[in-house]
Amino acid sequence: MYASELAEEEERQRKRAPWGVIALVLLTGLALIRNGSGEFDVGPPQPASAAAADTRTSGDAFARSPDPLPYGVPDRVRIPAIRVDAPIMPVGLDADGWVGAPPPEDPNLAGWFTGAVSPGEKGTAVVVGHVDNTQGPAVFYGLGALKQGNQVEVARRDGKTAVFEIYGVEVFAKDNFPGDRVYGSKGAPELRVITCGGGFSQQSGYAGNVVAFARLVEVR
Q1: Which one has a higher pLDDT value, 51 or 183?
Q2: Pairing between β-strand 123-128 and β-strand 132-133 as defined by DSSP bridges
Q3: Read out DSSP for 8-56?
Q4: Mean pLDDT along residues 59-67
Q5: pLDDT tens across 45-57, in order?
Q6: Could you tell me if 143 and 169 are in contact, meaning their C-beta atoms sit under 8 angstroms apart?
Q7: pLDDT of 81 higher than 90
């Protein structure tokens, strides 16, 4: 690796937010994505069960996971089971310390949180998106309908596609969000896809966040 590349990697590591900070942000009582409207007769699907435990042993997990990829900016996310095919933009922390979200005016746009690893790297990558906006359903409206075995494909700008397999989907109350469990590294490449979920009220918005847990199973 050239000196310039090393410097770039060191800068990325320095800017990466500690998960404890992000967990604290989510525990302050507001949803991760604050612009969901919830103004529709039929709300977004909610997870059928809270079965997000990864029951494999550590040896099984590493045996099945491909080798981690190097850093690579994600370009597009596809989730065939819920007909998602959307571009990805980078998001960070906003001026108030919240995890940013894509502009709500564009319903078919996801965000990659740059404070975490890139999809396919060792660690836990995070992709966020709106569940709805004032016009109707948005990119991750159907996230709660995913099941174990469904796949999430993340195309990267380096020409590689990281393919992740869902092993659980859960909804967490925004005032009891388990940051360490959601974001913590398992020592292999994983992905979390997050949107708003749970009950909705005009006063406080969505009551929680839907989180899809996935692990890397293929590189194309």
Answers
A1: 183
A2: unpaired
A3: HHHHHHHHPPPHHHHHHHHTTSS-SSTT----SSSPPP--S-------S
A4: 66
A5: 888 754 455 545 4
A6: yes
A7: yes
The answer to whether residues 163 and 153 touch, using CB atoms and an 8 Å cutoff, is yes
Angle at 197 between CA 195 and CA 201, to 5 degrees: 125
Task: Output phi, psi for 34, to 5 deg.
Answer: -95, 0
Which sign does the torsion angle of CA 160, 141, 129, 118 carry?
A: negative
Cβ atoms of 197 and 129 closer than 8 Å = no
Per-residue DSSP letters for 82-144? GTEEEEEEEE-B-TTSPBP---TT-SS-EEEETTSPPTTSSEEEEEE--SEETTEE-TTTTGG
What's the CA angle centered on 27, arms 21 and 31, to 5 degrees? 110
Q: Taking a C-beta distance cutoff of 8 angstroms, is the pair 149, 158 a contact?
A: no
Strands (E), 129-188: 132-133, 136-137, 151-156, 161-173
